[in-house]
Amino acid sequence: MLKVATRFAPSPTGALHIGGVRTALFNWLYSKNKNGTFHLRIEDTDKERSKDEHKIQIIKSLKWIGIEYDGDEYIQSTKIDDHINIANQLLMSGNAYKCYCSSEEIEEQKKGARQKKLPYIYNRKWRDLTEADAPKNIKPVIRFKSKIEGTTVLNDLVQGNVEIENITIEDFIILRNDGTPTYNLSSTVDDHQMGMSHIIRGDDHKINTFKQIQIYLAMKWELPQFAHIPLIHTIEGKKLSKRDNASTLDDYSKIGIMPDALRNYLLRLGWSFEDKEIFTLDESIKYFNLEGIGKSPSKLDMSRILSMNEYYIKNMDEKDLFDQFIKYCKLFKNEIKSDKVDKIEKSLTFLRNKAKTLEDIFNNGQYIVLDEVSFNQQDMKLIDDEAKKVIAGFNNQLVKVDILSKETLEPIINELIKSNDTNFKGVGQPLRIALTGSKFGPGIYDIILSLDKEEIIKRLTNKKLI
Fold first, then answer.
1. Following DSSP, what letter does each residue of 386-419 receive, concatenated?
2. Cβ contacts of 70 within 8 Å, gap of 6 or more
3. Which residues pair with 202 in a beta bridge?
4. Residue pair 17/61 in contact by the 8 Å Cβ criterion
5. What is the reported pLDDT for 176?
6. Phi and psi for 151 in degrees, rounded to 5?
7. Cα 245 to Cα 434: distance, rounded to the nearest angstrom
8. pLDDT band at residue 242, thresholds of 50, 70 and 90?
């Protein structure tokens, strides 16, 4: 039985796109499910746009979301001679030919197609001409001699059988006139040399697959199996692009989306297994299959991502959550002072209650971290004489308390409610504003118990509240 080998082949011309991450995830899960191997190929033959910084970001992004590739990354630009060698073999075997059409001729053909509102297909002018007819002042490209009769059927592992008329596949260029190979040639040669058994990629590559199959057949190489995944669309139904907001992993990590949550979301984006929604990493590998991939595009829904992230925040081990939170703060926020770290850890149980992201936890805990309370000016309008009386009354009683606990605080709060002829909100809201700067935030008991007694007194006696 053929050992499964899959690959992810991004171009390092920009940050890794969320659609690419899902493609990598599906390839990785499929290979792991089949006890196969998963490989990373960097397609860096576009020298002008390829950058090392993008390659580093791609590798870091895959690692962040938990995708580990086998062996070293395969660098396409180091294999150019192999690609050129195959182009020459195809030329010698009669499966390719030199095309001497000038750029003006090609442009004229494209213009004619546009006028007729037809897709441009090269007219195969040089397919049967000899080099004796070649102009001396034009460097030729090498074109693959595509089949012009019959049909080709692609047995797609996701889409089912897809049939195409061979005449619709143009004689595509495999070697440019500067001697450099094109995508379809390089990708096919690399996949063959890497021993790829399955090519799993976006369905925008379907036409490329038909071209690449012809190269495989011409070289008498064993065909891999192909699976084309529907693309990811925006919530409005448009194709997601790198220009869209929240299209790269960096966009998500910056707002505090956790890798496990995003991986779980991407797994379920266009794939299903029974009615299951939450998958551990081991479960993802155990249950993943190509049969569960749908045939229609999926919509990237930020509210669902936040909901999934909130589930993980609420249900994950508190120590793991704290470790992720501290890493997040070091990367994207001001590092929390060492004397405040313990207070945040102690308060994490309630700080995560209303949090959908790690950034929410950071914002919820700002009152603990900051040395000076930053007051919301709109909320400060609520600190009237009655509110000031509540704050002063609570402070007067607090100084008499030796040990802060809900049991020692409740009688004070209840007495203030009674003596000020108010309700719990009438006491809790002024105290929350005094201690955190905002009327929004955790429960008042949680806030008080997360601060030192001296810090509470300092905040209650702020001159802005007197």
1. HHHHHHHHHHHHHTT-SS--HHHHHHHHHHHHHH
2. 37, 38, 39
3. 229
4. no
5. 95
6. -130, 160
7. 37
8. low
Alpha carbon 231 to its chain's center: 14
CA angle 324, 328, 331 (to 5 degrees): 140
Residue 297 and residue 230 in contact, taking contact as beta carbons nearer than 8 Å: yes
Number of helices and strands (H, E) in the chain?
A: 20, 12
Interaxial angle between packed helices 406-419 and 385-398, expressed in degrees from 0 to 180 and rounded to the nearest 10? 140
**pLDDT for 360-416, tens place per residue?**
999 999 999 888 888 889 988 899 989 999 999 999 999 999 999 999 999 999 999
Read off the pLDDT of residues 40-74 as tens digits, 9 standing for 90 and up.
Answer: 999 998 888 889 999 999 999 999 999 999 999 99
Whole-number Å distance between alpha carbons of 344 and 336: 9
Binned at pLDDT 50, 70 and 90, residue 243 comes out as low
Q: Are the C-beta atoms of residues 167 and 148 closer than 8 Å to each other?
A: yes
Write out the two tokens for 98: 């030199």
pLDDT band at 236 (very low <50, low <70, confident <90, very high): confident
Number of CB atoms found within 10 A of residue 143's CB = 23
What's the CA gap between 314 and 375, in Å, rounded? 29
Q: Please provide residue 415's backbone torsions phi and psi, each rounded to the nearest 5 degrees.
A: -65, -40
Q: What CA–CA distance (Å, rounded) separates 67 from 16?
A: 13
CB 451 within 8 A of CB 420: no
Residue 239: band (very low, low, confident or very high) from pLDDT cuts 50, 70, 90:
confident
For residues 377 and 403, the answer to whether their CB atoms sit within 8 Å is no
Condensed to tens digits (0 to 9), the pLDDT of residues 267-309 reads 999 999 999 999 999 999 999 999 999 999 999 999 999 999 9
Residues 6+ apart with CB under 8 A from 41: 7, 8, 9, 73, 74, 75, 76, 190, 194
- How far apart (Å, rounded) are the C-alpha atoms in residues 324 and 327? 5
Provide the token pair at 461. Answer: 């006696």
Q: If pLDDT is split at 50, 70 and 90, which confidence band does 463 have?
A: confident
Does 246 score more than 60 pLDDT?
A: no
φ/ψ of 101, rounded to 5, equals -65, 135
User: What Å distances lie between residue 124 and 110, 151, 177, 211, CA to CA?
Assistant: 13, 18, 17, 16
Using the structure block, give the residue that is written with the tokens 């494209």. Answer: 110
Are residues 167 and 176 in contact, defined by beta-carbon separation less than 8 angstroms? no
Residue type at 450 in one-letter notation:
S
CA proximity to 404, closest of 344, 450, 349, 459: 450
Element (H, E) at 7: strand 5-8
Helix (H) or strand (E) holding 430: helix 424-436
